[in-house]
Amino acid sequence: MTKLSILFVDDDQNLLFGIKRALRVRQKEWSIYFAESGEEALSVLANNSIDIIVTDISMRGIDGTTLLQQTLKLYPSTVRLVLSGYSSQDVIVHNATVTHQLLAKPCEINTLINIFDKIAKVRNSLQNQELLKIATGLGALPSVPGLYEKILSEIEAPQASIQKISDIVAQDLTLTARILQLVNSAFFGLPQKVLNLQQAISLLGLEMLKALVLYVKLFSTIPDKINAVSFSSDNLWKHSLHTAHLAKKIALSEGAEKELVDEAFIGGLLHDIGKLVMLQMPEYAKAVANMMAKNQCQMAQAEYQLYNASHAETGAYVLGLWDMPNNILEAVMYHHTPSQSNANRLVPLLAVHVADVLLNASCSPDNANSKLIDQKYVTNFKATNNIGSWSNLCFEVCQKESN
Questions:
Q1: Which residue, 119, 221, 242, 272, has fewest beta-carbon neighbours within 10 Å?
Q2: CA dihedral over 49, 52, 57, 58, signed as positive or negative
Q3: Cα separation, 207 vs 189, whole angstroms
Q4: Is the pLDDT score of 105 beyond 70?
Q5: DSSP tally for the chain: helices H, then strands E
Q6: Confidence of residue 401 (pLDDT cuts 50, 70, 90)
Q7: Which of 368, 363, 227 is nearest to 289 (CA)?
Q8: Rounded to whole angstroms, how far apart are CA atoms 285 and 299?
Q9: How many of the other CB atoms lie within 10 Å of CB of 361?
Q10: Whole-angstrom Cα distance, residue 185 to residue 187?
Q11: pTM of the predicted model, to two decimals?
């Protein structure tokens, strides 16, 4: 495992000195650099391989936003974090597409250490360096163009409904991920993670949501050429939404507590987000389709053969950079292979895995193919007798869509 390199940028010398002193305990594992200006930071970046940059926003000369934009352009493999006491709406929204996490001053040193450890772990899970560069360098992921007008129309309605807005937003996995990323950032100072989309939108506020929607719309489009080569964005959105609803139903049927039910829904909604990342690679859609046809294999198997990585760990990597909860990362990373995880509970991982398998196999209660369900994992939780009821729930979800 390579040594993690971290660059702190702030024009407050006392702050940098305090961080330097506090992180001495990790000096054998990390290479830590410090810069007192954006200009100095760019020099450090040019002369060293930096894994993580942590910068303030309001600085003399090159400010933090410009520095992050330059880092994204010149060093896309570098993870980008904001540590700032400046939290205006414009600053938060404007930096949402160039930073992976927003942290508020003052920040506990243990919080920083935990974040760095988590980033190191998810980086190690993605071995393909080209894919790592693409995933880390994303400014924004593609989103569903047709939904923006619906969202904005509902936001601007005389009696805007948070429920209706959340229902529309839930159809867009990229916007959902961005909303959860922002609400759970340190700027909101929440005591625990928010995974319920309606609650997240309520906390975010309609004005900030509107600004975020417009900003994501500006930077997020699916190129026409992608849709022309064996890939349907509509099918991806529909499958993600169906998986979310079915995973939630499965979690409820297993008597899971509310937090786990919410995690099952979000995990289902985001489980294929890695496909949006891998679509940034030239010829990905065409190459995977050809490999699947040639070897008669599943998509994830074709991805491994081509790239030594799949959309599962790719999606978990991006969500890990955004500090999503571990249960959701686990559900995304292992939704094809739950037995490879260290999960010690039935949901949300198994709920997402089963939902994905059943929806990909069939929407008929008589023909739902359970052969691809990880029987070893199911047996560990003594849930083998539940496959029939899960298949019925799958049929309900499919029927609801067709009505």
A1: 221
A2: negative
A3: 19
A4: yes
A5: 22, 5
A6: low
A7: 227
A8: 10
A9: 17
A10: 5
A11: 0.82
